[in-house]
TrEMBL record:
<feature type="transmembrane region" description="Helical">
    <location>
        <begin position="163"/>
        <end position="185"/>
    </location>
</feature>
<protein>
    <submittedName>
        <fullName>DUF420 domain-containing protein</fullName>
    </submittedName>
</protein>
<feature type="transmembrane region" description="Helical">
    <location>
        <begin position="12"/>
        <end position="32"/>
    </location>
</feature>
<keyword id="KW-1133">Transmembrane helix</keyword>
<keyword id="KW-0472">Membrane</keyword>
<keyword id="KW-0812">Transmembrane</keyword>
<dbReference type="Pfam" id="PF04238">
    <property type="entry name" value="DUF420"/>
</dbReference>
<feature type="transmembrane region" description="Helical">
    <location>
        <begin position="47"/>
        <end position="68"/>
    </location>
</feature>
<feature type="transmembrane region" description="Helical">
    <location>
        <begin position="118"/>
        <end position="142"/>
    </location>
</feature>
<feature type="transmembrane region" description="Helical">
    <location>
        <begin position="80"/>
        <end position="98"/>
    </location>
</feature>
<dbReference type="InterPro" id="IPR007352">
    <property type="entry name" value="DUF420"/>
</dbReference>
Length: 186
């Protein structure tokens, strides 16, 4: 199975990207019937954004550590950090999609001027980077998990990984800024 995956990384990347984005946009746009999802208590739902902020902050740390390890040539540590980052992203995404599927996207509680000139542009860039990151992350993750470290030199893993990590990092940071505007500042 790994051999098949190794030989079809672009195709698998495309399939996983389409499925992931369909789930995200389906949840955000309300296409997932709310009655089909078991509802957690309000206390649980209300803590999800705060848990996700912590998860995002830890992911920023693991991505940065992964980049540092790659630059030092410590590829096993790099792999561990990036797999941890991917797991943290999966946790974030499951929690986010669960809350959004049940309650819809959070409404901005602050003044209109901040909404128009700060919140919306930050949110737009955050969403755009997150969408662009998805196929890049799947691509480098599939390359890394279907090959030994020594074979990655013959792939685009490092080049695509640098772009993916940079965009992913910025997206997580902007996500935390959006969180702060929604739940801390206002």
């Amino acid at each position: 199975m790994i051999r098949t995956a190794r030989d079809h990384v672009p195709e698998l990347t495309a399939i996983l990207t389409v499925v992931s984005l369909a789930l995200v946009f389906g949840a955000v746009l309300g296409a997932i019937p709310r009655g089909s999802i078991p509802r957690a208590p309000e206390a649980t739902l209300s803590v999800i954004p705060h848990v996700n902020a912590v998860v995002s902050t830890v992911a920023v740390g693991t991505i940065l550590a992964g980049v540092v390890f790659a630059r030092r040539g410590e590829f096993e540590k790099h792999r561990a950090m990036m797999l941890s980052s991917a797991a943290l992203f999966a946790v974030f995404l499951v929690l986010y999609l669960y809350k959004v599927a049940l309650e819809g996207p959070a409404e901005f509680p602050g003044p209109d001027v901040v909404y128009t000139w700060a919140y919306l542009p930050l949110l737009a860039v955050h969403i755009l980077l997150a969408v662009v990151c998805i196929p890049l992350l799947y691509y480098v993750l599939l390359l890394a998990t279907t090959r030994p470290v020594s074979a990655l030199v013959d792939t685009a893993h490092a080049r695509v990984g640098r772009v993916a990590a940079s965009l992913w990092l910025i997206s997580f940071v902007l996500g935390n800024v959006v969180y702060a505007l929604l739940y801390v500042v206002y």
